[in-house]
Amino acid sequence: MGHHTAHQPHGLHRRAVVPDKLVAYAEEHGIDYRRSSLRRAICIGEALRDTDFSNNTLGAKITELWPELELFSTYASTEMQTSITDGGHHCGGHVPADMLLVELLDEQNNPVPEGQEGEVVITTLGVRGMPLLRFKTGDICTPARDAAPAAARRCASRR
Asked: Which of these, 2, 44, 37, lies nearest to 22 by C-alpha position?
């Protein structure tokens, strides 16, 4: 069976994917990474970057196999009712300030300074059915400021 591209009638240029499933799917279906029309992947469920925003092992593996594919990280949970998504600079997730208030707190519930890890605590905004106030997610992130004018806070890492 020959190689084929991830092409649909109007071209498949971007897709939301689980990163490790993307590689497995491409290999299983003989997709030629270099000839695929897929150019952007919004990645869910798995971290792709280290705390310095370089690719982690998974991100590096995908980029090595599929160099033309631009990877966008996301961080989300059902409770958030939105996601924190990587921007075009790939330097952390941008919080949708109109939908979510994110705090990164230490064990005494104090905000952590830039560069220190803290637990992600969320307050949903505009949710009517089940709003959450200071919901502790159990996830750990590092706050960072962004030079890009549209961003306020970024989630630099999670575990």
From this structure: 44
Q: Kindly give, in sequence order, each residue whose CB lies less than 8 Å from that of residue 64, ignoring residues fewer than 6 positions away.
A: none
Give 4-62 pLDDT, tens digit per residue.
444 443 456 778 888 889 889 888 989 888 888 889 999 888 888 887 888 899 999 99
DSSP 8-state secondary structure symbol assigned to residue 152: S
What is the helix, strand, coil percentage profile of the chain, to 5?
A: 15, 30, 55
Largest CA distance in the chain: 59
How far, CA to CA in Å, does 106 sit from each of 17, 77, 116, 129, 144? 32, 20, 9, 29, 15
- Cα 98 vs. chain centroid, distance in angstroms? 18
pTM for the full predicted model? 0.73
